[in-house]
Backbone:
């Protein structure tokens, strides 16, 4: 059994709107390892969520996987090529929730307002296991209890609007964990919550990883969270992975100008209001109107003429440390 | 829940009293009084002022307006609705005869429009952008804009006169004929009465469903691995149902108002038909009582909608 549970290779996912094509992902390759946390970071619109949705096949209708592969290395069913599965077909549905579960960004809207929390968790369990409603409800109570929700016997019959934001997200995690999935994809799970609750949620996720050997793909743009939780980190920009590696390599020794800029732009707590903020210049370019060479070139401090012409290839600079920047490419290795 | 329903029903009472007052006031403001309506104008002209006062005294017409109103209200509450001016038959008998027919028609139309409307609307939403959806949208436009009396006459022309599938109009005596014989009389009027509402419900259900299907909890539902029909019906349709029911409730008065026209066209012996002939005959006792029944139906419908909404949407119960 290999360490890797999901391999994404050269993934291209395109959106089609108004007869234009938005190439949201341009050849993304990454690996999610069993029992490890992979953090995906990047600005809004860089393709983090699209990567996650591609893995779950939860893309919008006008969006499709154009090229590349997503392989799920199942323990008992062998390798499954997710990109070839029918979107809401039987095989894909058997993976969703059971093998790969997902937590969404906004717990306020991610739960159905007209059903009780217990009902929604039970539905998930009963979709994959043949158990009675009563047993499913008891399982839901246990799950809520393990998520630290007080008085779960009563809470299980309450509706989402009776829960606070943090509790809803915990209920959401309880639901996602209800079938003991092998992979948990968390798409910015704490963006909508306040900081104290964030810490609790992340602690919970870390415990799940330890106790059940669940692989976690955590999408975030909070570098602090990355430092705390990540085993591996992937930095995305405009639909490409521009740097990846273990958390130690990447955060201790960032190589790509974008990663460096990203880390530098974080304000330090305690330094006061007079500290110099170093935001990255400019803003994310229009994905429908891309530059020819390196996508980050227009905003890069270290750009050279070559950068305008050539999109650099992936280049290993450490054991697992990959960077995609012309500064590290020997001549003529880049591709258009 | 029980408390909520009781509260809603009690809340109806002051509303009803205010409306009866307004109706009574409107009637008071029309020229002439009961005596001038009951008697031949020539006969009145021949009577002396004292005789007229005596007659008015007999009927209690010389009391101040407010006192007369409360006397009338008291009578109504005791179930004494007076008699029809033209025939002398008690109003309660006339209404008792006509009301079941109207309720039958309204329930049939309500059922058709709610059921057909929401099913077609959801179908259009699930098949958005396809031929089915376009056809339904087109049909919906026609349904909303076609006048009911016109549609009714076209239906009679096609289905009754040309194809001879269904009777032209009327209603058989419910005690004599079996259900299937009766239903052929019901088909056309209820369909015509329900057409506007069906189209309205359909368009509303479609947009409500489309709105719901874009919500994040639909993606959550898909992420659970449940079948697509469950995502559509259990999660999508269930949530989009609430605004549709509210719309149906608000449109209920149009069913009641529409019954006046439809019942005349199809000679349906209901309240609407009675109402239009009572107006033509200046049969004020009857008009007054039927108007009151219409008002009561509208009030009742809106209370009913409130209760249904509370049952369907758990968030409503919070407002105690």
Residues:
């Amino acid at each position: 059994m290999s360490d890797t549970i999901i391999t994404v290779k050269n993934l291209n996912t395109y959106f089609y709107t108004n007869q234009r094509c938005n190439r949201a992902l341009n050849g993304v390759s990454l690996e999610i390892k069993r029992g490890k946390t992979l953090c995906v970071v990047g600005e809004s619109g860089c393709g983090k969520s699209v990567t996650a949705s591609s893995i779950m096949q939860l893309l919008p209708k006008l969006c499709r996987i154009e090229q590349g592969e997503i392989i799920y290395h199942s323990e008992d069913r062998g390798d499954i090529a997710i990109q070839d599965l029918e979107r809401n077909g039987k095989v894909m549905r058997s993976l969703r929730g059971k093998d790969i579960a997902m937590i969404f960004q906004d717990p306020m809207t991610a739960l159905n307002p007209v059903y009780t929390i217990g009902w929604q968790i039970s539905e998930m369990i009963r979709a994959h296991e043949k158990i009675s409603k009563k047993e499913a409800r008891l399982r839901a109570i246990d799950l809520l209890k393990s998520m630290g929700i007080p008085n779960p016997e009563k809470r299980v019959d309450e509706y989402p609007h009776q829960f606070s934001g943090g509790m809803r997200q915990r209920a959401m995690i309880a639901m996602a964990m209800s079938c003991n999935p092998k992979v948990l994809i968390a798409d910015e799970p704490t963006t909508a919550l306040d900081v104290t609750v964030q810490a609790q949620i992340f602690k919970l996720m870390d415990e799940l990883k330890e106790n059940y050997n669940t692989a976690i793909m955590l999408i975030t743009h909070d570098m602090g969270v990355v430092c705390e939780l990540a085993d591996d980190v992937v930095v995305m920009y405009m639909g490409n992975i521009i740097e990846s590696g273990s958390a130690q390599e990447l955060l201790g020794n960032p190589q790509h100008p974008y990663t460096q800029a990203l880390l530098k732009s974080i304000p330090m707590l305690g330094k006061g209001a007079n500290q110099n903020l170093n935001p990255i210049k400019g803003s994310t370019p229009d994905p429908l109107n891309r530059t020819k060479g390196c996508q980050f070139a227009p905003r890069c401090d270290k750009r050279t003429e070559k950068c305008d012409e050539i999109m650099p290839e992936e280049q290993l600079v450490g054991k697992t440390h990959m960077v995609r920047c012309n500064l590290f490419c020997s001549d003529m290795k880049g591709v258009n | 829940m029980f408390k909520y329903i009781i509260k809603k029903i009690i809340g109806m009472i002051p509303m009803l009293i205010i409306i009866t007052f307004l109706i009574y006031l409107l009637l008071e403001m029309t020229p002439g009084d009961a005596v001038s309506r009951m008697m031949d104008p020539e006969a009145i002209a021949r009577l002396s002022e004292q005789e007229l006062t005596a007659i008015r005294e007999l009927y209690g017409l010389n009391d101040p307006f407010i006192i007369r109103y409360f006397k009338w209200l008291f009578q109504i509450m005791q179930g004494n609705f007076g008699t029809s001016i033209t025939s002398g038959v008690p109003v309660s008998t006339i209404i008792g005869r006509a009301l079941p027919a109207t309720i039958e028609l309204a329930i049939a139309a309500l059922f058709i429009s709610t059921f057909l409307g929401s099913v077609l609307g959801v179908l259009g939403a699930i098949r958005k952008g396809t031929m089915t959806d376009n056809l339904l949208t087109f049909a919906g436009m026609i349904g909303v804009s076609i006048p009911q009396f016109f549609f009714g006459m076209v239906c009679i022309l096609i289905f009754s006169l040309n194809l001879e599938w269904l009777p032209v109009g009327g209603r058989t005596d419910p005690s004599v004929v079996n259900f299937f014989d009766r239903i052929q009389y019901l088909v056309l009027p209820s369909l015509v009465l329900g057409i506007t509402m069906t189209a309205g419900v359909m368009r509303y259900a479609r947009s409500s469903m489309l709105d719901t299907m874009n919500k994040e909890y639909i993606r959550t539902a898909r992420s659970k691995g449940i079948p697509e029909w469950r995502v559509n019906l259990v999660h999508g349709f269930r949530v989009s149902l609430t605004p549709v029911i509210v719309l149906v409730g608000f449109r209920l008065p149009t069913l009641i108002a529409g019954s006046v026209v439809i019942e005349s066209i199809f000679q349906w012996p209901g309240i609407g038909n009675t109402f239009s002939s009572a107006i033509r005959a200046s049969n004020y006792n009857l008009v007054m009582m039927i108007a009151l029944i219409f008002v009561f139906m509208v009030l009742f419908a809106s209370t009913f909608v409130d209760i249904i909404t509370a049952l369907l949407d758990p968030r409503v119960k919070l407002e105690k």
Summary: Residues 129 and 166 of chain A are 28 Å apart (CA to CA).
